[in-house]
Amino acid sequence: MKLWKTYLSICAVFILFNFTRISFAQEKTNIAPEQANHLVVLQYHHVADDTPGITSIRPNEFIEHLNYLADNQFNIVDLPSALNKIQNGQPLPKNAVAITFDDGYLNLIDVALPELEKRNWPATIFVNPGLLEKHKSHYLSWQQLKHWHNKGMAIANHGWQHDYWVRQPKDMDMKQWQAHVKDSILSTEKAIEQQIGGSPKMVAFPYGEYDSWLTTWLTEQNLIAFGQQSGVIASYSDFTALPRFPASGQYANLQTLAVKLKSKALPVDYKTLPSPLKANTQNPPQVNLNWLTKGKINAGQLNCFVTSQPKAKVTDKADYAIVVATEKLNTGRSRYNCTLPRNDGSGDYFWFSQPWLVE
After folding, report:
1. Is 118 helix (H, G, I), strand (E, B) or coil?
2. d(C-alpha 276, C-alpha 335), whole Å
3. Of 159, 187, 181, 152, the residue nearest 80 (C-alpha)
4. Cα separations in angstroms, 56 against 194, 254, 269, 328
5. CATH assignment of 272-358, among 3.40.50.150, 3.40.930.10, 2.60.40.10, 2.40.128.10
6. Rounded to two decimals, what is the model's pTM?
7. Can you name the residues that pair with 353 across neighbouring β-strands?
């Protein structure tokens, strides 16, 4: 009898434990998108007056960005730590923003990094070891990167040479090309670990270009990856193709950036999105946005815009929306950018971006 009571007690605990797990999972699934963790990530390259305008922001403009963030109660967070919290369901501070720099240009030490240090704000620098070792007059050295890492800056992976990862060269077959890309990423991880003492296991795609074979492999390697499509990060994002808001060149305008900083991630299933290369076989390409919380949003107010084209056609279905351009996309990179007014009375938006590549 005593054994039987013990057995029943164990069963009761087991049932209670699993019921708690199921209830918690349902609670997380049903959470309103406005209440979920959201992280805005800003992407910069050069911070200088004498560099190419398309990838540059003037030092005075960069300082204006930082002042705006401070004056409007945005919380600048360490990117690796913030992503870990999102993935583990831990809360982020309100209005969380992370700052990133691609390429690790030497001019960052003139204004950008000292200004961040004055505010005790972290940032992430994505580097190309092959370039910084060959062109020491253009890029931060390992010694400088180590110095700034010790001051709170994360040093992360941008590939060995900043070459194209989805545009296969004519002198390689697909197997050789994929092996080359994988080696570029793994060699960079090894160099960061050796030179800095550890890696945050984050990759930024050169030129923001990626394909499904690459994101699948990155998942197997436990690496998080970022594109250059705009948008916000949430728990339901695809962590092998995370968005960032470009904040240099034509995107440095503070008035439009302010709208983006207040946006949330559009509540769709990002893991069902197509490869950007779909545009090579279906042009104009169609993307289906599968809603995660259809009843809590105004899906009929979704507006989508196409690079250098009129607005996209949006068809609202019961559980998803169909978005397609009205004209063929031009050769090169382009995007569908979608916004949806939030229904919380804030006047702010949900944001979504799908990158495309037509070769």
Report:
1. helix
2. 9
3. 152
4. 30, 14, 33, 30
5. 2.60.40.10
6. 0.89
7. 337
Q: Does domain 40-264 have CATH number 3.30.70.1660?
A: no
Quote the CA–CA distance of 327 and 194 in Å, as a whole number: 49
Q: What residue segments make up the domains of the chain, in order of their start? A: 40-264, 272-358
Each residue's pLDDT, cut to its tens digit, for the chain (359 residues) gives 444 444 334 344 333 333 333 332 323 344 556 566 899 999 999 999 999 999 999 999 999 999 999 999 999 999 999 999 999 999 999 999 999 999 999 999 999 999 999 999 999 999 999 999 898 889 999 999 999 999 999 999 999 999 999 988 888 999 999 999 999 999 999 999 999 999 999 999 999 999 999 999 999 999 999 999 999 999 999 999 999 999 999 999 999 999 999 999 999 999 999 999 999 999 999 999 999 986 678 888 999 999 999 999 999 998 999 999 999 999 999 999 999 999 888 999 999 999 999 98
Q: What is the DSSP secondary structure assignment for residue 283, as one 8-state letter? A: S
**Order of strands across the sheet with 313-316?**
286-290, 320-324, 313-316
> What's the gap between Cα 189 and its chain centre?
19
Main-chain dihedrals φ then ψ at residue 95, nearest 5 degrees: 55, 50
Q: 12: number of CA atoms within 13 Å, CB side?
A: 6
- What is the C-alpha separation between 228 and 90, in angstroms, rounded? 26
Q: How far is CA 11 from CA 1, 5, 25, 34, 73, in A?
A: 15, 10, 21, 38, 50
Q: What is the rounded distance in angstroms from the CA atom of residue 137 to the CA atom of residue 229? A: 30
Which of helix, strand or coil describes residue 44? strand
Give the residues across from 289 on adjacent strands: 321
